[in-house]
Amino acid sequence: MADPSSYRPASGQIPDSPGVYKFRDEHRRVIYVGKAKSLRQRLANYFQDLANLHPRTRTMVTTAASVEWTVVSTEVEALQLEYTWIKEFDPRFNVKYRDDKSYPYLAVTMNEEIPRVQVMRGHKRKGVRYFGPYGHAWAIRDTVDLLLRVFPVRTCSAGVLKNAARTGRPCLLGYIGKCSAPCVGRISPEDHRELAEDFCDFMAGRTGTYLRRLEHRMREAAEEMEYERAARLRDDIEALKKAMEKNAVVLTDATDADFIAVAEDELEAAVQIFHVRGGRVRGQRGWVTDKVEDVTTGALVEHALQQLYGEETGDSVPREVLVPALPDPIEPVQDWLTGRRGAGVSLRIPQRGDKKALMETVQRNAQQALALHKTKRASDLTTRSRALEEIAGALDLDSVPLRIECYDISHLQGEDVVASMVVFEDGLQRKSEYRRFQIKGFEGQDDVRSMHEVITRRFKRYLAEKEKTGEWAQEQALTEDDGRPKRFAYPPQLVVVDGGQPQVAAAKRALDELGLDDIAVCGLAKRLEEVWLPDDDDPVVLPRTSEGLYLLQRVRDEAHRFAITYQRAKRAKRVRTSPLDDVPGLGDTRKQALIKHFGSVRKLRSATIDQIQEVPGIGRKTAETIAVALAQAAPAAPAVNTATGEIMEEEEPGATPGSSGEPVTAGVPDERRGQDT
């Protein structure tokens, strides 16, 4: 634990202006990011008597080894920079709302010629209309299934659409009336786009006008005694009403707003968000966070707003955001939201009426979420703590291994040899720290030599970063432009290798050669799940019911999974190689254009040079080179006359080259024949 006075800057050095500050630990990893209206006043609060600090703040400042800051012009800029740095550095002591999943949205791809309705997760794309988020993907599919009867919009993938257009037969939904089948020309792309826009209007809450129009058409059909059409319209109306019942009206004035509620105790906080569009609850989501500092409810709301709208723009940010407490000060946050939306945003606390009643409902959801999370976490924290303590005791470590790295070697009969490194911190996966390696030092299969190479390469990088970021070089510029330590700059307390005594000995030898004696090493052998230590002839056998053994197994299995995934990807990439890869100067774009034009390499191989030239971007000289490369890749293929572009007949035995036309290599310089790219 560091003494904050050892890195406390002089008060006169800190500017009295808005800005963002970063605390770093001894390994130069950013552990906390904050913003302030006055950097001087805010940072002074961290360097007071430790007894006066909140326990979690005290832990942060004693873990830190340095502090630095960046001055900005306004508090709005500080808010934006703070959000950017929290996303970039993922500081361990910051308020981070842990979303237990990526919430699904109902998306309509209006950026395509034939829009598609589908479930989407992750970052939002330009030109796509989003509705939600929803709690479950099946909720979206239920809604879409009801609406497709009235709005038979395309839901199939690009491959299915293309195949249907090629064969002239629509998919099943086209036959049963739940798709208007634009793929086979039953509806024009323009009419289908209009149908998709009607679908979007209905989902956006503009339902009354459309229902009245359908009812009017139903009555007209009945008056004209077109009873079948009237019955279909009646069923359409019932389907729409059933879909609307799934999203009951909660606000009668067609409000577009987000309701954010916070439930908290001294250690944790839960946030619940209801997305209301057109007066209906269109989606719900929730987060949970640790309270690292003694933060107020207003500060938790501010962080929730950053998380919720940090990457949103336009209509994704509603006109109204209703919260249980306002950030202090409110002006920068409100200005930031207005900038994200491009129009005014009202950030306020509901005081009366339907909106206050709905906020109470959201608050109850937040309280239930916090209670459920604490019930799960109590068991989880206890189990992980016991597992780490059991590992420390079994391996005779000085302290519990808060960071564990595990390495595994993977190959297929000695080919495509790769290695993986996975990281667990506090007993949990930290996937952003995962790394993978290609074995470069030798050819063939040797797991022991491979392990030695990987451990050496990983910790050479650590030593290099340690030297750059050591105390003697604090003033020296780092390799990264933004001042972050490069990858591998943070050491583990325990290295686990997948294997027995030979692999453990190789890993230990690599660390000894680098002069590292403060990192423990062990191996977990699959046969009997034995734990091997360096220089011990007998393994450590943990009880089968041990939480420590279970954690080591999880770490080992995750490293094995990660290595296998990488090895299979490399093998698949090697298998997918094409004869076109050997054509000098032929990039991926033109390769794809060739395959798209001809359909396959086989058909391309049988094409004439004139036919190859028909592909956009392919000239005469390139076409000749492609023909040569394909002919050399398949010697049995018929030769090509480069002068005429015709496929030559096979020569009779004993015929001299060129007797029935120019040989395939005519017109190609000698130094290019058979050249590898």
TrEMBL record:
GO molecular function, one example?
Answer: hydrolase activity
Broad class of where this protein is predominantly found? cytoplasm
Q: Which UniProt keywords apply?
A: Coiled coil, Cytoplasm, DNA damage, DNA excision, DNA repair, Excision nuclease, Hydrolase, SOS response
| Entries under Gene3D superfamilies matching the protein | 5' to 3' exonuclease, C-terminal subdomain (1.10.150.20), GIY-YIG endonuclease (3.40.1440.10), UVR domain (4.10.860.10), UvrC, RNAse H endonuclease domain (3.30.420.340)
User: Which family does the record assign?
Assistant: Belongs to the UvrC family.
Function recorded in the entry: The UvrABC repair system catalyzes the recognition and processing of DNA lesions. UvrC both incises the 5' and 3' sides of the lesion. The N-terminal half is responsible for the 3' incision and the C-terminal half is responsible for the 5' incision.
Quaternary structure, from the entry: Interacts with UvrB in an incision complex.
Q: What is this protein called?
A: UvrABC system protein C
Recorded source organism is: Streptomyces macrolidinus
